Amino acid sequence: MKYRLAVLTDIPALVAIEQAQPRCAQWGQTGWQTELAEKSARVWCAQAENRVIGFVALRFAADIGEILNVGVAPAFARRGIGTELVNHALIWVREHGGKQLTLEVGACNNSAVALYQKVGFKQVGVRKKFYMGNEDALIMGCTW
Ligand SMILES: CC(C)(COP(=O)(O)OP(=O)(O)OC[C@H]1O[C@@H](n2cnc3c(N)ncnc32)[C@H](O)[C@@H]1OP(=O)(O)O)[C@@H](O)C(=O)NCCC(=O)NCCS
Asked: What gap in Å lies between CA 31 and CA 36, rounded to an integer?
């Protein structure tokens, strides 16, 4: 498995992963183009042989990083790839002088919440009925 920064030619693979994972933010081709061109953004992808099978998208400003999107292709679930991707974001923010990494996750998204807790995130807030006026959004943060 290789982890590297994503480039424009990865966009079709990134879109395919988010479409296969409805819990991902659905950015589509235009959204990914915007993200990859954004100076405060970093997107890493996981590559198995020649195939992109996962990603994490981060923005970083004023000492705080925020994970905006994470996804792993269903066929590669539960092999530690999501953990590796989130750890890449954590290490990068630390190495660039960041003090905190935050994210927002659906309260019912048990697999993602478990992953974030496993790598050291704690719940720091909640937005009640944030998603579709129904599901709460948990704000999670990792500080060091
Ligand atoms: C969440 C997601 C990125 C996890 O990717 P992954 O590569 O399968 O995760 P990992 O293999 O690194 O798993 C790490 C931990 O997460 C938890 N986890 C992952 N998948 C899980 C599942 N289906 N059920 C319960 N816990 C799960 C476990 O605690 C796991 O540790 P363990 O395998 O030692 O028990 C992936 O399921 C995904 O793409 N989900 C849809 C998109 C999404 O929800 N993104 C986050 C939006 S905020």
From this structure: 9
**Comparing C-alpha atoms, which of 55, 18, 13, 57 is closest to residue 35?**
57
CA 111 to chain centre: 13
pLDDT tens figures, 93-136: 999 999 999 999 999 999 999 999 999 999 999 999 999 889 99
48-60 confidence digits (pLDDT tens) = 999 999 999 999 9
Pocket lining for ligand 1, CB < 6 angstroms: 21, 23-24, 70-72, 77-83, 105, 109-112, 114-115, 118
> Hey, what domains does the chain have and what are their CATH numbers?
2-102 (3.40.630.30)
pTM reported for the whole predicted model: 0.97
Q: Determine how many CB atoms are found less than 10 A away from the CB of residue 72.
A: 26
